[in-house]
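Practice problem 4.
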């Protein structure tokens, strides 16, 4: 199969032939229909986070099941599915207490003594984030995908697999936004826009969208923002505090920088919660004023929107089909696998929401 391979940090992905194995007892072989380009992929390309190389990147995807292993009961050939990088075992402490996204069980991967899921020229290739979806096919654990209704367009469904689940989940699960509360979202890429949308679905009374690209004002409002701040022209923290007369109940950092995480904390009112969604590069630190904690302010991480994806993702599909979840507006461009490097170059310019690779049926 054709796949986009990262061979060396800081270099373009290469389109190469990669071999894919057959499904084991609890595995599913999927024909990839669409895969979104996520800023997390760019972190690995640029070396902000390490990963064994060479590797097939990609983790935001949807497709159609081609084969299933002998013990698979959740999906069958022909099912349309969304994948999720937070594969879960189903019986560890995290899973049985309802925190599926925190599962780290090695059971969702193959043993070192087994044949690899992916290989090239007889040499094993490490699977990226349980998926490696910049490829024509994916071989994954059954608990890394969920079946959805077949009238859902798969290019839009792919977005639910990471950015939408991460952003919406951060609002409704991790921070538990309640009707009437105030929200600020820093960074209006795919994840940030999804957080805006999630806060709107949760019933937030005021949603302040913040970005350094002024042209994202109208886009943010389409997703449910009530206000927009151009952070390139003003002190966003000061303006949020003035607009809300003391700060917001919930803030969401969706860029992945220490500075903006600090801003998310500093724009809180007493009792507020800052949620760091973005992947802050390894080595960056935060500096927070200790006295602020006397006001019961909190800062916390959010992993994939604290999801229970087998339940959450089909519900998000229903939200889209009923017009509540904005996905059409999030896709800035559709590209082919061979254009993946151009897509990442466009991402670095900062003007796009999401680029989606679409594969021929």
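Answer key:
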């Amino acid at each position: 199969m054709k796949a986009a391979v990262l061979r060396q940090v800081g270099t373009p992905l290469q389109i190469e032939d990669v071999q894919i194995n057959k499904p084991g007892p609890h595995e599913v072989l999927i024909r990839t229909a669409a895969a979104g380009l996520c800023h997390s992929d760019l972190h690995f390309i640029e070396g902000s986070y390490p990963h064994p190389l060479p590797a097939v990147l990609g983790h935001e995807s949807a497709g159609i099941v081609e084969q299933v292993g002998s013990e698979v009961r959740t999906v069958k050939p022909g099912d349309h599915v969304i994948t999720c990088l937070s594969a879960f075992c189903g019986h560890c402490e995290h899973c049985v207490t309802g925190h599926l996204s925190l599962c780290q069980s090695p059971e969702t991967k193959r043993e070192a003594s087994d044949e690899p899921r992916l290989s090239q020229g007889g040499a094993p290739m490490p699977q990226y984030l349980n998926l490696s979806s910049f490829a024509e096919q994916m071989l994954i654990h059954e608990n890394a995908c969920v079946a959805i209704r077949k009238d859902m367009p798969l290019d839009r469904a792919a977005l639910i697999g990471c950015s939408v689940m991460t952003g919406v989940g951060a609002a409704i699960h991790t921070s538990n936004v309640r009707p009437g509360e105030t929200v600020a979202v820093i960074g209006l890429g795919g994840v940030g826009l999804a957080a805006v949308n999630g806060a709107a679905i949760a019933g937030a009374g005021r949603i302040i969208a913040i970005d350094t690209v002024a042209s994202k004002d109208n886009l943010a409002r389409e997703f449910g923002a009530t206000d927009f701040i151009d952070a390139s022209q003003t002190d966003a923290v000061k303006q949020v505090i003035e607009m809300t007369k003391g700060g917001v109940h919930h803030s969401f950092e969706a860029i992945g920088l220490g500075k903006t995480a600090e801003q998310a904390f500093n724009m809180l009112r007493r009792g507020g919660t800052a949620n760091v969604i973005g992947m802050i590069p390894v080595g960056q630190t935060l500096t927070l004023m200790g006295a602020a904690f006397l006001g019961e302010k909190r800062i916390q991480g959010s992993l994939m929107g604290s999801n229970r994806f087998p339940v959450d993702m089909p519900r998000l599909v229903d939200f889209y089909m009923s017009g509540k979840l904005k996905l059409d507006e999030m896709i800035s461009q559709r590209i082919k696998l061979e254009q993946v490097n151009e897509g990442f170059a466009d991402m670095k310019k900062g003007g796009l929401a999401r680029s989606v690779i679409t594969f021929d049926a």
